[in-house]
Design brief:
The complex is a heterodimer of chains A (117) and B (112). Chain A has 117 residues and is an all-beta fold. Helices cover 0% and strands 50% of the residues of chain A. In chain B, the strands form two sheets. In chain B, strands 2, 4, 5, 9, 10 and 11 form a six-stranded mixed sheet that branches. The termini of chain B are far apart. The interface between A and B is medium-sized, with 25 and 24 residues.
Chain lengths: 117, 112
Amino acid sequence: DAMVIQNPRYQVTQFGKPVTLSCSQTLNHNVMYWYQQKSSQAPKLLFHYYDKDFNNEADTPDNFQSRRPNTSFCFLDIRSPGLGDAAMYLCATSRDVIRSSAAYEQYFGPGTRLTVT
Amino acid sequence: EDKVVQSPLSLVVHEGDTVTLNCSYEVTNFRSLLWYKQEKKAPTFLFMLTSSGIEKKSGRLSSILDKKELSSILNITATQTGDSAIYLCAVDNGAGSYQLTFGKGTKLSVIP
């Protein structure tokens, strides 16, 4: 089945120790997103890729970086995790909305729960 | 600033009850409204609504959009314990960016 896969599902890292979360998709979607979701809060968009074109949200801290080496994979790098970065990180994909006249929906991976000790 | 507000924030019902969840929005360019169900993992897609007054239905769940009132409701009839989840409403602002603006969700608990 076509899907969005995130690894690992649970990640524990130490304060200040770099960590990388990965996302892959078999949907062949052009657009990939990273969201941060803290407890009892709405998912917050960090950035998205339209193909290789990277789009950072204005309030995403510099501590968060991303890479998309090809259509299928996208990585979230947290350079120096702080305690406040503990959250669920959600990867999502969607179709190319510009060429499609229809509104789109986003397909989410299962998420990676990050704990910072 | 685009805003999506859901109510109530949490709800406890008994199995068999019918519930109505509300979502209202203020966005600059509306394209669609989406409902997701989130259990102990990532959100799963339920409905996408683009036109006012047309009900979308899937089993015991249904949803409708009112563009005049800038709102949507999600109905669940004959609730079951498996319906316990957080229900998220999101609006696609369609402004050339790809951001969905999410509400904080309604936490539904269905007790036997």
